[in-house]
Write a structure and sequence with these properties.
The chain is α/β, with parallel strands linked by helices and 320 residues long. The protein contains ten helices and eleven strands. Helix 1 packs across helix 8, helix 3 runs parallel beside helix 10 and helix 5 crosses helix 10. This is LacI family transcriptional regulator.
């Protein structure tokens, strides 16, 4: 049986010895691998002003979209190591893409110095309210009565929304029909419209539909309930889903040879930013929770995620 966790493959994080280093450049580019307006961009732009203030440098968000964030990751991996270029990454390019693809232009475990995880954004499992499901246990019971009949939408094959459903099926030992779409928007629209029954949506995207009664929230993919979804339990609370965890994190990484002193300085500044109630509230409005994890711990989390997704991808036969 596939376990939701995975052993972290940690060899490879490269940091220079902690020592006195030259000051950070006056301007720092925070590279985002997605277009303006999406969650990666919005969260990076919330972090940039307080980070600028803390380190007394001009932190500028630069969008380099393409290939689900992979182009930006490759760009930073080859970038300068003086701290003037940092990657604002999310889980997809750093943990799911390495599990799916053998020919990535970067190695997430060797080509980056993890600075700090900033926030996490679990998804929410939603159902069309015309369906009888009120809990994940209801879905599992129905799927056992009618294998392969219950439908769940995704933003595409190999997307986080696909893997969220696949992990649920694997842990619960059930079979549901995966319906891939070309993007999250159409998948959400058809779930609201009743063409498909279930979807794993971003919280900020799904929240208006949940509040208006057009979707029903069954559970969140994180380890704890969310303030924005009171009364909606983690899916892992379901007896058949022990260990279920999908955390779409957002964090800052530098090139592999970023000096250790600068990693520490930037990590200290990000930690201080996340203690500010104003920033925390702004993040929560976007449906994400502040979730600090510094250098080594952040690296461990990335390694564990890669191992988990590789195991699931192999089980599904999705790797390329």
């Amino acid at each position: 049986m596939l376990m939701a966790g995975g052993a972290a493959a940690l060899a490879g994080w490269h940091l220079e010895p902690f020592a006195q280093q030259a000051p950070l450049p006056k301007m720092i580019s925070l590279i985002v691998g997605f277009p303006p307006g999406g969650p990666n961009d919005l969260i990076a732009r919330l972090l940039a002003p307080p980070l600028s203030e803390r380190i007394e440098r001009n932190v500028v968000v630069e969008n380099r979209p393409g290939a689900d964030g992979e182009l930006a990751a490759a760009y930073v991996a080859r970038g300068p190591v003086d701290g003037g270029m940092l990657l604002f990454a999310s889980a997809g390019a750093m943990t799911i893409s390495p599990a799916l693809k053998k020919d990535l232009p970067y190695d997430p475990m060797k080509d980056f110095a993890p600075v700090a995880r900033v926030a996490s954004s679990p998804m929410v499992m939603v159902a069309n309210p015309a369906r009888p499901y009120r809990t994940a246990a209801d879905v599992i019971a129905a799927a056992r009565r009618a294998p392969g009949k219950i439908t769940y939408a995704s933003a595409g094959v190999g997307s986080p929304t696909h893997l969220a459903g696949a992990l649920l099926c694997n842990l619960a030992r059930i079979d549901m029909l995966h319906v891939p779409y070309k993007g999250g928007g159409p998948a959400l629209t058809d779930t609201v419209g009743g063409q498909v029954e279930l979807y794993f949506a971003g919280v900020s995207t799904a929240l208006p539909f949940i509040q208006s009664g057009k979707l029903r929230a069954l559970g969140v993919t994180g380890s704890a309930p969310l303030a924005s979804l009171p009364g909606v339990p983690p899916l892992a609370d379901t007896p058949d889903l022990k260990g279920y965890l999908i955390d779409n994190w957002y964090g800052v990484l530098g090139p592999a040879r970023l000096p250790g002193a600068r990693v520490a300085l930037l990590g200290d500044a990000i930690e201080a930013c996340l203690k500010d109630d104003n920033l925390r509230k702004k993040l929560q409005v976007q449906g994400v929770e502040p979730a600090l994890a510094r250098n080594a711990r952040f690296g461990e989390l990335i390694g564990a995620d890669i191992a988990k997704w590789k195991t699931l991808v192999r089980a599904l036969g999705l790797s390329t």
